[in-house]
Design a protein that fits this description.
Layout: E1 7-12, H1 14-18, H2 23-31, H3 33-42, H4 48-61, H5 66-74, H6 80-91, E2 96-106, H7 107-116, E3 125-129, E4 131-133, E5 139-141, H8 164-174, E6 181-186, H9 192-196, E7 203-207, H10 211-219, E8 228-232, H11 235-242
Parallel strand pairs: 1-2, 1-6, 2-3, 6-7, 7-8
Antiparallel strand pairs: 4-5
Helix pairs in contact: 2-3, 2-5, 3-4, 6-11
Length: 245
């Protein structure tokens, strides 16, 4: 470990990064596979967060319950090695580690799963799309960036609902002084924007064979990626890497 690192920030994407599945898709694969197929067919035509929201309304309309959704979330794959890895790193006295979740899922999916895994106190902040249960049991989901208000200015390819790069910068502004090191764990193409904001002393832990790896290999050098990249496929490899941090 670098002796100069006293404060570090660990940033996790949620789906396929902290968790071992995609929560938006998992719910419908478990409870309504026909809606999952519909989402797959429409994903290039409808903004993803809006598509999940409409699918949740359709599921509710055919009798899907809060209890069913929470039950499906609680059994979603989540590797024990990842739980060990984050708990062990958080418990270390040195360096002092702050955890941030930066996800295109939603607040209810993430909080339900974290509570089930005993990780509800892991993150300093969870930056994601807001969701809440209404009295009828409908999970109401909205984009983090309201489509009727000012839009983010990302030119790197973030989805309209949120620019992860802008959100990371805003978090860093709220949590001064600067962290000695940032470690970003991600998998998707929308994780490319925030890692471009990172410094040469920072680390990216990129999951293999997914969109982020493709963008790093195709665009990283020309877009000025400075952070050191480590690749991983299974959560046990993140646990190995965390032992070095």
């Amino acid at each position: 470990m670098d002796p100069k690192v006293e404060r570090q920030l660990v940033v996790f994407d949620f789906d396929w990064s902290l968790a071992d599945q995609d929560s938006d898709r998992w719910i419908f694969e478990v409870l309504a596979p026909d809606l999952r197929r519909k989402m797959k067919n429409l994903k290039n035509e409808v903004q993803w967060t809006d598509l999940v929201a409409s699918s949740l309304r359709e599921l509710h309309g055919r009798g899907g319950t809060r209890e069913q959704i929470e039950g499906a979330l609680k059994i979603m794959p989540f590797h024990p090695a990842m739980i060990r890895a984050v708990k062990t790193l958080k418990a270390k006295d040195s360096p002092q580690t702050t955890f941030l979740c930066l996800s295109n899922a939603n607040s209810v999916f993430i909080s339900t799963i974290l509570k089930e895994k005993g990780l509800d106190d892991l993150f300093e902040e969870i930056i994601t799309n807001p969701a809440e249960w209404d009295p009828s049991g409908l999970l109401k989901l909205q984009r983090r960036v309201d489509p009727s208000g000012p839009q983010h200015q990302c030119k790197v390819g973030c989805s309209p609902n949120m620019c992860k790069g802008e959100e990371l910068n805003a978090f860093l502004e709220r949590h001064q002084p600067a962290f000695d090191r940032i470690i970003y764990i991600g998998d998707g193409s929308n994780d490319f924007c925030p890692i471009l904001r990172m410094r040469s002393e920072d680390y990216v832990l990129c999951r293999r064979h997914r969109g982020l790896q493709r963008r790093i290999e195709e665009e990283g050098e020309k877009d000025g990626l400075k952070a050191k990249v480590f690749y991983w496929a299974g959560a046990w490899e993140v646990e190995e890497l965390f032992k070095q941090f």
